[in-house]
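Hey, can you fold this one?
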Amino acid sequence: MPESAELHGWKQIAGYLGVSIRTAQGMEKSALPVYRGPGVKAPVYALTREIDAWKASTTRAGQPVPEGFPSRREWMRYGWIGAQAALAAGGCVTVFERFRQTDALPGSWRIQGADLVVTGEGDSPLWHYRFPEAPEDSFGYGVFADFSGSGRRDTLFIYRPTRQGSTACLCCFDRKGSHRWTFYPGKTVADTLGRRFSPPYSVEQAVAFRPRGASIDRVASVSVHNYSFPAQLAILDGKTGKVTGEYWHRGHLNHLAAVDLDGDGEPELLAGGVNDAPEFKQATLLVFDHRRVAGATPNPQGGSYYQGIPPMAAKRTVFFPKSPLARHQDFNRVAAVDIQASRIVVAVAEGTTELQAESIVYELDYNLTVVNVLLADAAQNSLHELQRRGEIPTESSEAIAERLKRGVRVL
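Sure. Predicted structure:
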């Protein structure tokens, strides 16, 4: 394609980048150079020359492991920001190493074609691993932690190849870049209506945590079914990747965090998404004791949604109310979970997709008490437009936020 060619629409832009349309749209929040013509629904376009320059600058800068979330100002301006972890799958078996430095600590990573490059201080390459095929997109998701007890930082990476229908797996590499283990999520489960849900499942997010008194980090991951509602929260042994506990959720769990909420030295696991069962249909945050991850989501009668898996409630469950923006949607859903000092910040997209610009941001303390509710600018603008058209009562943004605050249920 000529250097100055134009790309018209997200399909062409995503194809040129070699990523999914959803990922390309998320890249716009990371300064991907795209343009729109006049009009509210004007199509998007881009210049290949500018995209090439953007990709080059991104590769030089590398892709560090996320250290935190957008500031409150950014939340209010953009709502939920789609820099979501890339998923990945397939056989993580072929190693091609060009370089290794075994003494430096890894600090970031980047994808170059089909290669995962882990770098240290000053973006200097430490080791290099080639997957059988290129990941779906260039943003991936990596975690550095000690899974061997060596006192050094191993690498955990979510990988999905571009092949359609592939499964996102979780790959662990030691400090020298040697492949240690791969976790393929999910299994066949059946609900109480007799519907069977077989793999593939895809890892959405993973975190490392260290139990009190342990010398090795462990892994928690959340994975979702390729087309339907089952989701798996799995606890893995950091050294072997073996599953030591699993919980099956009715709905999707796409976000995960670990934090010691009660100060007892044992981290709790926070999994965010949606319970889309007919009895709930709400954005959901689940809090687990990592030592008691088992069973399945209980229904209101105390039974399980899945055959052969006993019901077991999470340590705490938080349901977030639908705002007027989601009045015609099947449900809203948690789009992000961020842990801050003494605060848990949860972004809720007011619709069935995380790409909803209209989001509500909830700030909870470590006791899960809601201390603040913020309406993103896009949400406020949409609410004011509904009021202008007479579709919802006229009231202030503050009044809406206060009503939503009162509507949060903590079980």
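The helical segments are 9-17, 21-27, 48-61, 72-78, 377-388, 397-407. Let me know if you want another pass with a different chain boundary.
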